[in-house]
């Protein structure tokens, strides 16, 4: 039977490349079979020379040795070369791009949307005290363990493998230079990230990051409470209020920086490298206050005195009233 099948396939077809179009990738899931893998190739390249490849995979018992992952079918690769790649599990790394997010759920989904892993598997580890402890973290500083960036990983990596890799990248990010900068401004690595997390919630304007960092550093040096509204919002949990009111500032929580001096116990979100670097290289000035501008542009007024700050804050409160934001 094998001889008959071989006779139906000329030597020319085995020497002919599987694809002559530009390189492309296929993704192989646990549920895939030889037939579905061949179909994936044909979907990427309808003119692909798949008969000899299919023959080789069938007679090399590929269905018994399927490896999940991302694989690159190179232009000009022969059926033998492609079958060797698939049978050996010689997959191609993919780029995992991680951005700053507010919650563990958002981070878990962002990772899962780019890889084979399930978001629930990521979330369960990021909320597991035992797993976090094995990584050197805990539920309070979990937001410290991932530095948003773009990394090369294997598409079929497990949740534990992905997070272990991200912890290694986090440790690599904290170079001797960054550690020295943190020490020079009187903060630990975690404290830098705590302050960075507040800054990211205060403004979306990158140019304001180091200025706001400077405001908070001035307040810390003078032992003034940070009075950061984002920490109150985080402490309250649930849905974010449209407007932070006086009653919210009385919320009893160690994260309420209106009631508690210094930094909160941990970060209030995952942060970006921009906000971390803004803290490490904060702008030195005399500002102690800032208030959102009444045009809702997201920009802020900065003040050195409380009276000046109150005047700016009153403008913003009037704008909120006029807009009907309660």
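^ Assign residues to that structure.
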């Amino acid at each position: 039977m094998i001889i008959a099948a071989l006779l139906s396939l000329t030597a020319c077809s085995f020497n002919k490349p599987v694809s002559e179009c530009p390189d492309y990738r296929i993704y192989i899931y646990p549920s895939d079979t030889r037939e579905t893998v061949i179909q994936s190739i044909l979907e990427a390249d309808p003119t692909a020379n798949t008969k000899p490849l299919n023959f080789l995979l069938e007679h090399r018992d590929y269905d018994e040795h399927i490896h999940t992952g991302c694989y690159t079918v190179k232009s000009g690769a022969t059926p033998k070369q492609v079958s060797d790649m698939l049978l050996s599990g010689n997959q191609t790394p993919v780029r995992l791009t991680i951005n700053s997010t507010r919650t563990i759920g958002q981070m878990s989904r962002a990772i899962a949307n780019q890889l084979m892993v399930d978001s629930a598997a990521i979330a369960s580890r990021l909320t597991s005290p035992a797993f976090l402890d094995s990584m050197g973290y805990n539920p309070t500083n979990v937001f410290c363990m991932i530095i948003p960036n773009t990394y090369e990983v294997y598409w079929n990596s497990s949740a534990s493998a992905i997070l272990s890799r991200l912890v290694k990248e986090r440790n690599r990010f904290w170079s001797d230079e960054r550690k020295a900068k943190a020490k020079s401004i009187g903060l630990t690595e975690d404290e830098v990230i705590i302050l960075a997390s507040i800054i990211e919630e205060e403004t979306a304007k990158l140019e304001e990051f180091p200025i706001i960092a400077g405001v908070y550093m001035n307040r810390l040096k003078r032992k003034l409470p940070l009075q950061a509204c984002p920490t109150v919002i985080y402490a309250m949990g649930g849905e974010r209020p449209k407007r932070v009111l006086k009653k919210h500032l009385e919320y009893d929580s160690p994260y309420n920086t209106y009631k508690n001096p210094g930094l909160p116990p941990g970060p209030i979100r995952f942060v970006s490298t921009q906000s971390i670097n803004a803290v490490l290289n904060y702008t030195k000035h005399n500002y102690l206050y800032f208030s959102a501008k009444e045009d809702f542009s997201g920009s802020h007024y900065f003040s050195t005195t409380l009276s000046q700050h109150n005047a700016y804050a009153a403008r913003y409160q009037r704008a909120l009233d006029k807009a009907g934001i309660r």
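The mean pLDDT is 94.
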